[in-house]
Amino acid sequence: MTGNHKDKTISRRRALAVTGGTVAAGGLAVAGFQSAFADTTDATADADATATATSTGSECMTLMTSVTEGPYYLDGALVRKDITEGKAGVPLTLRLTVVDATDGCTPVKGAAVEIWHCDAWGYYSGYTTANPGGSAPAESEEGDSANDLTYLRGYQIANANGVVKFETIFPGWYTPRTCHIHVKVHTGGEKEDGTYEGGKVNYTGQLFFADDIAEEIFTLDPYAKHTGTYTVLADDMVYDGGGATSGLLTLKAVHKKDPSKGYKGSLTLGVDPDAESTGAGSGGGGTPPSGAPSGAPTGTPPSDSASPSASASS
């Protein structure tokens, strides 16, 4: 999204995180971001939401399905609520609740939830030369320096009710995947130097979006500049049709008559805090996008992507 990027390198981003600096979100009108990102939920509401999730039964009590982490993971994401880093797109506030599905859906306080996803044209930070398929504008005019950017990646630490919140944008798409967000749940580590260190990964998964909402979003600017064949949920190689337990988000429009104002997405993640996930879960297959990474960009490449043909499109 040339013209909407801000030249924030990993070192600059880390400095901002450690010193408490902020970066203004770019793209859509600031008012849209402010309305979508307004935090009107207090501790009492969080507690009520957790109690409701605990009492709903089967969905909460079911362990979330672990799936592949895909090829675009990078270590060292920053602990931050706003992960947009100036990226343009429809605002998305994401609220995830981590519960222990092996212990009556009790909140997992202190769990570190990590998410990463592509931008409105299908590009991932750190892998900006990977062609998203179809016809999309170039990710950046700055060449390899764009790989120093860390947009749309971050951690949040769960509060006493197991809740984390992120401010981001609605992801775009890339061939041959449907619209999705990658997620990991970590426990046992701690925040250090602006990121999360140590512990183990309990869950690796992906979050998905209803087709009708995604397709409406993709008619808007800047998404509409990426043209081609979009993969619906039923044809996706990772989503298995299981609804919420397979990562399908509950979405609510900020303004029903104007989707450009943004969405609020929520989901309860039922995990096993004693389990350890390698990131090599189910999903994969298909042809990787042209230009998919074959070597290490800025950061550490996935250690479990032994078969690019099986996971490079995830």
Explain how this protein is built.
With about 325 residues, the protein is α+β, with helices and mostly antiparallel strands. Helix content is about 15%, strand content about 20%. The chain is built from 6 helices and 9 strands, in the order ααααβββββββαββα. The chain has helices at about 10-20, 30-35, 45-55, 60, 210-215, 310; strands spanning about 90-100, 105, 110-115, 155, 165-170, 180-190, 195-210, 250-255, 265-270. Strands 1, 2, 5, 8 and 9 form a 5-stranded mixed beta sheet that branches. The protein has a 4-stranded antiparallel beta sheet with strand order 4-3-6-7, with no helix packed on it. Strand 1 and strand 2 (about 105) form a beta hairpin. The longest helix has 13 residues, at about 45-55. The protein is globular. The two termini are about 20 Å apart.
Write the layout of secondary structure elements.
Layout lengths: L9 H10 L10 H8 L5 H13 L2 H4 L29 E10 L5 E2 L4 E5 L36 E5 L5 E7 L10 E13 L2 E14 L2 H7 L32 E4 L9 E9 L36 H4 L3
Parallel strand pairs: 1-9
Antiparallel strand pairs: 1-2, 1-5, 3-4, 3-6, 6-7, 8-9
Number of helices: 6
The poorly predicted ranges are 1-58, 284-313
Order of helices and strands: HHHHEEEEEEEHEEH
Give the DSSP E fraction (strand runs of 2 or more residues): 15-25%
What is shown here, in short?
Helices cover 15% and strands 22% of the residues. With 314 residues, it is of the alpha+beta class. Mean pLDDT is 76; it is low at 1-58 and 284-313.
